[in-house]
């Protein structure tokens, strides 16, 4: 059973040895137990206090004790791990993919080697945009990894994970998520035979809770439900491989001791997990739809108020009670670009089939989308009464920038060539004498 600290945005502190946290100074001349003080900054030093993310680490070995990085070439048969900008011509056509096949190499495929890019936007060099990857691992990581390009939002769909980080361990299962800040070293260990899921690699501002505005003090994802690890360290010498993702490329170096040697730490730049089943859904109790922004779990903001670099949105089980209302998502065209994935069950706007668990769909800027024909007919003709949507969990990664699609995603046989058919049988029902 893991112990966790709770409350997203808090300045946490944790020590694995009593008295290992310095009492008065962040970087004292002498740290208890002969440790070394090291600060991890995930934001510029001069950012406003509310957006200033840093954590003090008290380590057995400072991180500078590492070898020279060497470029790590991936074999041509390996999945494509890309970073924005992607140069491919990007069609405006709506797209949908089936779940990808698992990968099986001679010695097994770990989390890093399984990452396959579906789409990306922005520019990693300018700290804007993000990427969407699929992971499909059959082997635990022996190597250690950190990402200099962005923070990682990991969304498991199948298989439990034990994520070892410098600050402690997080155990995560499907219908939970985990966020690992930029620069934090970690390993992904499989607790089941396989692991499949989605990753959003966020190059921009770190994820935060959305503002609640007129909703008030409570609702959506509550800060108390976000869990951070407690300090856990090992003092182990040996030969450890450290992988870094930097400017879209993978680099490798050697360490003579385990980097999981943080005996104590304090700060607000921490890995954390969240159970999507604890989301407090808000909706209409009279008529019509609030915008889907009411389902936002986390947002990476831009400098323009209200405009997201990327939003992480979910569509969980919930009551539908709105009267005189077409209840599924309406047909719409949106300046924001939307990638959707399905973690469990059926999405209420796609009941024709084809939107499979583990699959995904992409509706880029101003591409029309909405319910398939069967969902539309059902919604128009049903007698409205309170209805509970159960056994469902879809998510959306919505960005103010166009998702540029990878060559893999454009050419894989998992791309559905008949996706547009789900709307072609929508009836022409207009009649002048019909009200």
What does the model show?
The protein has 435 residues and is mainly beta. Helices cover 5% and strands 35% of the residues. It has helices at residues 111-114, 373-381, 407-411, 421-424; strands at 4-6, 12-15, 36-41, 54-59, 70-71, 95-97, 116-120, 130-137, 144-147, 151-158, 161-165, 168-172, 176-180, 186-190, 195-202, 227-229, 237-246, 249-257, 262-267, 272-275, 296-301, 308-315, 318-320, 337-345, 360-363, 387-389, 392-399, 404-405. The strands form seven sheets. Strands 20-13-10-15-8-7-28 form a seven-stranded antiparallel β-sheet. A six-stranded antiparallel β-sheet has the order 6-25-24-27-22-21, with no helix packed on it. The chain has a four-stranded antiparallel β-sheet with strand order 2-19-4-3, with no helix packed on it. The termini are far apart. The model has no long low-confidence stretch (mean pLDDT 94).
Short description:
This protein is mainly β and 435 residues long.
Q: Number of helical segments?
A: 4
Q: What's the CATH H-level superfamily name of the largest domain?
A: Jelly Rolls
Known CATH architecture of the largest domain: Sandwich
Order of the strands making up the biggest sheet: 20-13-10-15-8-7-28
Number of domains: 2
CATH topology group of the largest domain: Jelly Rolls
């Amino acid at each position: 059973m893991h112990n966790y600290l709770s409350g997203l945005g808090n300045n946490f502190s944790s020590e694995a040895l009593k008295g290992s946290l310095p009492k008065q100074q962040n970087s004292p001349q002498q740290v208890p137990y002969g440790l070394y003080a090291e600060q991890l900054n995930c934001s510029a030093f001069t950012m406003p206090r509310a957006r200033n993310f840093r954590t003090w680490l008290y380590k057995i070995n400072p991180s500078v004790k590492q070898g020279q990085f060497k470029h790590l070439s991936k074999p041509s048969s390996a999945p494509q791990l890309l970073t924005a900008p992607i140069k491919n011509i990007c069609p405006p056509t709506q797209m949908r993919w089936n779940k990808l096949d698992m990968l099986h190499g001679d010695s097994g495929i770990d989390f890093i080697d399984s990452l396959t890019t579906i789409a990306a936007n922005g520019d990693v060099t300018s700290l804007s945009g993000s990427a969407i990857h699929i992971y499909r691992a059959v082997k635990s990581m022996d190597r250690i990894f950190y990402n200099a390009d962005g923070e990682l939002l990991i969304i498991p769909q199948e298989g439990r994970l034990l994520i070892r980080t410098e600050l402690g361990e997080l155990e995560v299962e499907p219908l939970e998520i985990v966020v690992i800040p930029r620069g934090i070293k970690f390993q992904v260990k499989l607790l089941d035979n396989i692991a499949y899921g989605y990753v959003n690699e966020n190059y921009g501002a770190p994820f935060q809770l959305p503002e609640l505005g007129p909703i008030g003090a409570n609702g959506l994802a509550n800060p108390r439900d976000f869990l951070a690890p407690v300090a856990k360290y090992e003092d182990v010498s040996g030969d450890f491989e450290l992988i870094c993702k930097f400017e879209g490329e993978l680099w490798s170096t050697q360490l003579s001791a385990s980097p999981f040697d943080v005996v104590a730490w304090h700060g607000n730049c921490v890995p954390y997990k969240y159970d999507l089943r604890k989301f407090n859904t808000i909706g209409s109790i009279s008529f019509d739809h609030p915008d889907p922004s009411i389902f936002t779990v986390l947002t990476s903001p831009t400098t323009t108020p209200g405009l997201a670099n990327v939003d992480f949105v979910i569509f969980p089980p919930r009551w539908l009670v709105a009267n005189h209302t077409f209840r599924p998502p309406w047909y719409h065209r949106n300046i924001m670009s939307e990638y959707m994935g399905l973690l469990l069950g059926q999405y209420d706007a796609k009941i024709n089939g084809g939107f499979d668990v583990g699959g995904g769909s992409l509706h880029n800027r101003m591409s029309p989308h909405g319910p398939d024909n069967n969902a539309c007919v059902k919604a128009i003709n049903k007698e409205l009464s309170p209805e509970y949507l159960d056994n469902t969990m879809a998510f959306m990664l919505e960005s103010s920038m166009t998702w540029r699609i990878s060559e893999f995603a454009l050419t894989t046989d998992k791309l559905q060539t008949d996706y547009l058919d789900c709307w072609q049988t929508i009836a022409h029902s207009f009649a002048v004498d019909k009200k």
